[in-house]
Amino acid sequence: MRYLGSGELRLLGRLVINPSLRQADLAKELGVSRSAVNQIWTNLCQGNNLRIRGNLDLGKIGLRMIFGWALSGEGSDVLMKFSRWLTSSRLVTTILPSKMSSTFESFVYFEAVLPTGSQSQWFHSQVDRFRKKPYSLEIYSSDCSKISHHMNLGLFDGDSWLFPDSFRLEASIGAASGYVDILPIVGTVKQSTPTANISDDLLVAAVLEDDYYATATGLAEYYSELGLKSDSGRTLRRRIGRVRKSLASPYVDIDNIGLEQRLLVCIRDTIDAESAFSHVLHAQAGTFPKARVVSGPHLTLLELEVPSSVEWLTLTQVLSSLAGNASEICTFIANKTEKGTRLESVVSHLTSRIPSG
């Protein structure tokens, strides 16, 4: 990891609280010069890959995200075949096989971004094929209805993390469970029902997902990469502003800060709708150093980046007791360096299928 100085930690702390702050605003809030902020920002970008990314409402651009996981006993090659098929699909953005799981089974977690129509139907049919003989793979999947990103720098002194012990973690999240109906959910983007078709907004969204403050120049370069002709800079700036306002929410993404362990907590509920515990996790995932919550009917994923000192089996036990008997929970360790692809990859695939002329 890279040690963060007090100035870097102060700037990053303000940015996590309000990712929409630009450098001039940060300088004003911190009481320092803009050049000082720019220098710290540059250091964080170079040393920690600091990015302000966009959390998107995919439904507004005609897409739907599905997520889920497949599992099998040790020694089965069926899960490997399913993973290879996922890898071959340009619609799949995330594939995370387990290195070790709390149930001693092998898992693979996946996410895919699907357009409406035949491609979506085909993808679901292929997943169903692996559920049937001769594969008979145990696969759980769901449409995504909410995505949230969280970071808690209050646990970080620039050098090490103070992770809450089991008692404090259970007390914090457990207390929130009693107020599930009134808990505010901050930083969560609800996914709309897909209504739009392929459009220029889709290209803008793909760029904003990677860089919330993307410029018209960056967008024009993306058009060029796809072999498409872009509009004027003024039109692109106007389009970026509109799409940013209507379907993107900013969040901080940063690496190399001592969160060496990547844990995926997979939660399956027996109820038909999203569970109360899912709502609690969206509201309280800021208890952890760095977290992402994805949820839909029946399923919730809590993706954590935590220090290597965290006892992940103990964490599983705490969350299981909080979720109650209506939920099944499994935690597995995933490869920290596995990044997957982003929306830009899916958009490149979709635009390549549009007839020219």
Brief overview, please?
This protein is α+β, with helices and mostly antiparallel strands and 357 residues long. 39% of the residues lie in helices and 25% in strands.
Commentary on this structure:
- With 357 residues, the protein is of the alpha+beta class.
- The protein is 39% helix and 25% strand.
- It contains twelve helices and twelve strands.
- The strands form two sheets. Strands 5-2-4-3-12-9-11-10-6-7 form a ten-stranded antiparallel sheet.
- Helix 2 packs across helix 3, helix 6 packs across helix 10 and helix 6 runs parallel beside helix 11.
- The protein is globular and about 60 Å long.
- It starts with 5 loop residues before the first helix and ends in a 5-residue tail after the last helix.
- The model has no long low-confidence stretch (mean pLDDT 92).
Count of alpha and pi helical runs: 12
Q: SS-based structural class?
A: alpha+beta
Overall average residue pLDDT: 92
Shape: globular
The run of helices and strands is HHHEEHEEHEEHEHHHEEHEEHEH
Biggest sheet, in brief?
A: 10 strands, antiparallel
Using brief descriptors, characterize the structure shown.
10-stranded antiparallel β-sheet; 12 strands; alpha+beta; 12 helices; globular; 357 residues
Topology:
Layout: H1 6-17, H2 23-30, H3 34-48, E1 51-56, E2 63-72, H4 78-88, E3 92-101, E4 106-115, H5 118-131, E5 138-143, E6 146-151, H6 166-177, E7 188-190, H7 200-210, H8 216-225, H9 233-247, E8 248-253, E9 261-269, H10 276-284, E10 290-295, E11 299-306, H11 312-323, E12 327-334, H12 343-352
Helix pairs in contact: 2-3, 6-10, 6-11, 7-9, 8-9
